[in-house]
Amino acid sequence: MSPFKGQTGLKRILNATGYSLAGLTAAFQGEAAFRQLVLVNVILIPISLFLDVSRGERALLIAVCLLALIVELLNSAVEAAIDRISLDLHPLSKNAKDMGSAAQFVALSLIGVVWACILLG
């Protein structure tokens, strides 16, 4: 067990919720890409509610939008950790940041592919 793991039960859940909200706040305040993706979600998710598609297709349209937010949060976390370690240019740091960016590119491409497949069906 990690010495940094302290609480159990309801207290742990409440603490985790607080940490999650702090992470969302930090991402929204400090990451332009995250704010842009929130805007994309604010546009696309309501649109999906008015489309003439099945419930499963609607769930998929919404899920891929939320997935891009998840990937951006992870990408931002990797970038923050790399910057915390060192701001010096290093090939491994560049690789880590580039791979996070590539993951986000794939997630955004997935939005386009899924929405196109469902809408053009």
Automatic annotation (TrEMBL):
Belongs to the bacterial diacylglycerol kinase family. ATP binds at residues 12, 19, 31, 79, 97-98. One of its GO terms (cellular component) is plasma membrane. The keyword tRNA processing does not apply. GO terms for molecular function: ATP binding; ATP-dependent diacylglycerol kinase activity; metal ion binding. The active site is at residue 72. GO terms for biological process: phosphatidic acid biosynthetic process. Mn(2+), Zn(2+), Cd(2+) and Co(2+) support activity to lesser extents. The chain crosses the membrane at residues 34-53, 60-82, 102-120. Its main location: membrane. Keywords: ATP-binding, Cell inner membrane, Cell membrane, Kinase, Lipid biosynthesis, Lipid metabolism, Magnesium, Membrane, Metal-binding, Nucleotide-binding, Phospholipid biosynthesis, Phospholipid metabolism, Transferase, Transmembrane, Transmembrane helix. Substrate binds at residues 12, 58, 72, 101. Its EC number is 2.7.1.107. A divalent metal cation binds at residues 31, 79. Catalyzes the ATP-dependent phosphorylation of sn-l,2-diacylglycerol (DAG) to phosphatidic acid. Involved in the recycling of diacylglycerol produced as a by-product during membrane-derived oligosaccharide (MDO) biosynthesis. It catalyses: a 1,2-diacyl-sn-glycerol + ATP = a 1,2-diacyl-sn-glycero-3-phosphate + ADP + H(+). This is Diacylglycerol kinase. The keyword Lipid biosynthesis applies. It is a multi-pass membrane protein. It holds the Pfam family DAGK_prokar.
